[in-house]
């Protein structure tokens, strides 16, 4: 079974709400009008009964009753729909006024309860009262023809039902128009979502005419498109960078191999060429390993081992490893502070090794590389700083992007440098639920890492 659309549901709800309100209002008006006419009829009968009682109480003997006939006819005969009869204690009719039907109804009502009664297609409302005259009770029976009132209410109910049906149809149509107009932003979202492709990620839904109820949805959808666009651009750039980085070693391998195969050579030449090819293959293998690591990190597959690590001890071992390279260039290491954290020792060693390798690469000869460890109440801060050329502020946010270089035309001296070290470092730190950032001012560049301490 096909489900109703949101427009149809809201239109139906609007129609039911309007119909319910109008139906309740019509029912209230009908009941109020009927009550009003019933009160008028009841008041007329009570007034005539009271006037008749006062008139009959003026005589002291029933033999004087005939003297009241003109007054009774004047009192009770002025109303064409009113029937009146007066009986004595023995049931003898003393006075009758009205049509034959009304007299018959009045006679029938002598021993019945007051209220509405039907007779010969007419509806009558009757009332009975006793009057004490000269010690004898007289029964006064009054009946009022309310057929016209009932017919009026029957027509009124028919008109109300007709008007209610017409209002339901009109409100349903009007609700459909209003709901369809109000849901226009949703259709715009649908159209934009249907048209989204790799070539149209720049499209956005305008928020100027968006209702307040849909504003958060539109803002979230536009933010999703922005994230998709950014991810697609990064993926495209990443693919281009991979192709660029792999093209160089592959080109070197092909060139060396073609040169060697161009003519017969000695075993030494072949060995030299194979060693050169092996170096390029190792570089490609390291690059592929790094890219696989980053791909796992992007998908949340890098789960660090949880173990207690003394940061100072870890840094001392790394500085000892790089000490020979630093001594060759007259560079000194300065280490201060200590702290203990929970994390993966191998992964953190790789992240810090990348930072120290970059620091050695860019520090001028005779410079000083400082490693500071500060244990705070809520975090542990590890800073690796080195002197060198100041990095422009516009480049700082992108230093951790893959294959990113401040100078795209620059090629580093080490063949192992592919521009993935800082990206791997950030992935490792984020896997440890930490943060890393870079500052560069006045010829001093520092990378600051914040990690959670052992509580």
Automatic annotation (TrEMBL):
Check the record and name the InterPro entries matching this protein.
Answer: CusS-like_sensor, CztS_silS_copS, HAMP_dom, HATPase_C_sf, HATPase_dom, His_kinase_dom, HisK_dim/P_dom, HisK_dim/P_sf
Q: Which Gene3D superfamilies match?
A: 1.10.287.130, 6.10.340.10, Histidine kinase-like ATPase, C-terminal domain
Gene Ontology CC terms = plasma membrane
Question: Taking every annotated instance into account, which residue ranges of this chain make up the domain Histidine kinase?
Answer: 241-455
Annotated membrane topology: Multi-pass membrane protein
The yes or no answer to whether the keyword Cell membrane is present is yes
- SUPFAM superfamilies referenced in this protein's UniProt entry, alphabetically: ATPase domain of HSP90 chaperone/DNA topoisomerase II/histidine kinase, HAMP domain-like, Homodimeric domain of signal transducing histidine kinase
The keyword Transmembrane helix appears for this protein: yes
So what EC number does this one have?
Answer: 2.7.13.3
Q: Give the superkingdom in one word.
A: Bacteria
Compartment(s) of residence: Cell inner membrane
Q: Which residues form the HAMP domain?
A: 180-233
TM helices/strands, residue ranges: 12-32, 151-179
Stored Pfam families = CusS, HAMP, HATPase_c, HisKA
* Catalysed reaction equations from the record: ATP + protein L-histidine = ADP + protein N-phospho-L-histidine
Listed GO MF terms: ATP binding; phosphorelay sensor kinase activity
Keywords, in A-Z order: ATP-binding, Cell inner membrane, Cell membrane, Kinase, Membrane, Nucleotide-binding, Phosphoprotein, Transferase, Transmembrane, Transmembrane helix, Two-component regulatory system
Instruction: Tell me the function of this protein.
Output: Member of a two-component regulatory system.
- Protein's recorded name: Sensor protein
- The organism is Stutzerimonas zhaodongensis
**Organism placement in taxonomy:** Bacteria, Pseudomonadati, Pseudomonadota, Gammaproteobacteria, Pseudomonadales
